[in-house]
Design brief:
single chain; about 190 residues; mainly beta; nine-stranded antiparallel β-sheet; two-stranded antiparallel sheet
């Protein structure tokens, strides 16, 4: 779903996207290494649900100057059958991931030339979301952060020629945490 609103000085762009699918299996049987059939709840396809929302504002206060600011959020969760003691297959946990992004920038035109400044921040988190109580409750959540700023000059000194000069400092970090997730559906034993 998209919603775009424009005016002389301000544009707004909003989008939302949702996907989901159920886990399924062809039948409740599987074959072991010896060729013997056994019952299972292990899915052939692991279901999921996913949501992504984006928002961006473009501001044009003057003919030769414009700015923008935007952000996005995404979330994805698998939908695996819960493990049980009476049948094989299933899982104690689902996998989830979350991402946040925000960005801002400006563009200034002077004659045939322009200067652009952009800043981007990405944050990403993924890990286990436990569904059933388990003695092996081992949560590994990984967090990634990324920052980037870019100053770019676009120059047209000659006809049919463009010169681009830029500098782009970047900072990236990855952190592995062993702690309880912020969301969980089952208590530890």
């Amino acid at each position: 779903m998209n919603l775009d609103v424009s005016s002389k000085y301000l544009d707004s762009h909003t989008s939302y996207f949702h996907q989901e699918a159920d886990s399924y299996q062809n039948n409740g049987k599987a074959v072991d290494a010896d060729g013997k059939e056994y019952e299972t709840i292990a899915p052939l396809f692991i279901g999921f649900n996913s949501n992504v929302i984006n928002q961006r504002f473009d501001i044009k206060p003057a003919k030769n100057f414009s700015m923008y600011a935007g952000g996005s959020y995404s979330y994805k969760l698998t939908d695996r059958p819960d493990s049980r003691t009476d049948i094989t297959g299933g899982s104690d946990y689902d996998m989830h991931s979350e991402g946040w992004r925000w960005e801002a920038g400006a563009k200034y035109k002077f004659g045939k030339h322009s200067l652009l400044l952009d800043f981007v921040n990405d944050n990403y988190h993924y890990g286990n979301l436990y569904q059933v109580a388990t003695k092996t409750y081992d949560v590994r959540n990984k967090f990634q952060k990324y920052y980037e700023a870019e100053l770019k000059g676009v120059f047209h000194f000659y006809d049919k020629a463009t010169t681009i000069s830029s500098t782009r400092p970047t900072i990236a970090s990855t952190l592995l945490r062993r702690k309880l997730p912020s969301i969980h559906r089952a208590e530890c034993l």
